[in-house]
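Re: Re: token formats

Sure, here are both.
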Amino acid sequence: MNKIIKGVMSTAIAGMAAMMMTGCGVAKNSSNGTHQDSKVIKLGVNMELSGAVAGYGNAEKQGIQLAADEINKNGGIDVNGHKKKVKLIIRDNKSSLATSSSVAAQLTTKDKVAAVVGPATTNMGTAEIPNITKAAVPFVSPSATDPKFTLQKNGQVHKYVFRACFQNNFQGKSAAKFVTNKLKAKRVAIYADNSSDYGTGLAKAFKDVYQGKVVDSQTYAAGDKDFNAVLTSFKAKKLDAIYIPGYYTEVGLIVKQARQMGIKIPIVGGDGLADPKFAQIAGSQNATNVYYTTPFSRQVAAKNKRATEFMKAFKDRYNEEAPTFSALAYDAVYMVKAAIESEKSDDSTKIRAGLAKIKDFDGITGRITINKTHDPEKPIAVEKMTNGKISNAFSVE
């Protein structure tokens, strides 16, 4: 996910934040990475727990806590024959670029964590990269999806940046295939969030693959509330479907207003809709004939024993169904565990090496292999909503 928050943090500000964050701790910290003590492995969490995209961050926090508690209950992480418990150090970046940067510096310089999980969104994660790289500590974003997230401007991979979710281009192309092959939609309109790389990236990828006619293409901005003018124009154009790549905050309102004016055709979105707040904003009755691409589908996962166990454990603990973002974050923690155990070391530079070597990792969100650009190769699904509930799910080839 990639969310644009007002205000752009310059490189200079990021550097100042890094220099301001100093401190001391149990383990030493240098350009050679961090080294844990003999008792625990400190895992940092830099997450959007308040602010504009707190819905994603809090769901991911739940998955992280569940994974860490399970690992500790089973004895901890095996570091070359020695079991060590996980200690989570959780900090709120407040959906702010500057805060995400300073949190990254604090986690690595003061807290001396071995690795970081989060942030959830591309922009918050990008703000973290300078301080993470300086400290030689890897991080895994559960849900950053911008194609360039793991890459430097020169095209080289960011050495310490990884993710557990697929890229926007893969997601947008998969949505186009679904709309073409499953929905048989020959005429569509696109209504994209132009204030985020997430929305524009999905829209571009969709257009590149969709085999029908894009009758109209419009945009909106984060924070918009009234979408009736554009929806009225769509209503007059004999569409078979509408593709709306964006976040639940705005797409929920768009769906609500579309249904209220009598637009009943399928509405398709991205994984930004995979949050319970979408149906709350749209209204359960309006959240019908809605589809979205997702890295985690409970119906598809029900065929996997490990995923079934995760869903039960999540329901037992939180008294709710496991959302996509919790599953991604859960996988991110276990990816760090797998990296530590494969390298037989909790040194941060060794964890980075282990993450880069992950192959056929049995994740809750599917079998994962990390490729040369630190992106996961993994399956994708499409879920259908009826009356605000998941009523069907489809695998996309």
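Second one below.
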Amino acid sequence: MAKEYIIYCDESIAKGDYYSDFYGGCIVETTDAERINNALLQIKRELGFSTELKWTKVTEHHLDKYLDILSCFFRYIAEGTVKVRIMFRQNAFEPVGLTAKQKESGYFLLYYQFIKHAFGLRYCNPEGEEIYIRTYFDDLPENNEKKELFKNHIYALQSLPDFTNANIRIRRRDIVDVDSKNHIILQCVDIILGAMAFRLNNLHKAKPEGAVRRGKRTIVKERLYKYILAEICKIKPNFNVGITTGIQSNPSNTWSYPYRH
């Protein structure tokens, strides 16, 4: 059988004080996805945790449960079974010369570029075997017409030279938007992506209006962010959250690195 990968995709803050347009995702071979999904769900059941993992829902009461589940997820990242990618834009660099249509379609245009480039798919297939890509998008927040047009563009990626040379195939029926409640792998992506958007926009310093101290949830989220940062630093020593991950002069590392950002 041909090899097949699933790309789980999510997005976060569209407009932050310092960084905007956050997109995140992970890629995992289909044969591994069920095993990883079951392992994460097993931990969740053992913890007696029935709530969906979501950055916006992080509380002190559930923090240890989040840490246990993410510890498992990061083991798969460290071994390269799961590859995570985070993309965002620094507000200091504003796009110029955009048409009104491009501005209106910015959400999907950036999502398209994320899928096209972030995972280094052109380097995923040195053996030249046939490879299929599935894309699972977390509940795309646009009307059906715009969503279908976007999916058509994702489908057409396989016609680009980099994709045809890598013998990559995309079936139209495999481009879907899903409910993250049913995909714990996607929930883990949401947490990592949310943590990056939180820190890069200095939300760890935020205080409620009129308060002199940070709120409890902000402090808890900073603890979770620091845990995620420590796990990434084990994989990428000297990782800097505000700097693009290097490729050590080897373009194929856009595919091979377990975590890029």
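The beta strands are 3-11, 19-29, 82-90, 131-138, 168-169, 175-178, 259-260. The two ends are 32 Å apart (CA to CA).
- S.
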